[in-house]
Amino acid sequence: MAREHILVIEDEEDIQELLRYNLQREGYRVSLAASGERGYQLICSEKPDLVVLDLMLPGMDGLEVCRRVKQDVAVRHIPLVMASAKGEESDVVVGLELGADDYLTKPFSPKVLVARIKTVLRRKAREVQNEECVLVREELTLDPVRMLVKVSDVSVDLTATEYRVLHFLARRPGWVFTRQQIVDSVKGEDYPVTERSVDVQLVGLRKKLGPAADMIETVRGIGYRFRE
Ligand code: CA
Question: How many domains, in total, are found in the chain?
Answer without folding.
Answer: 2
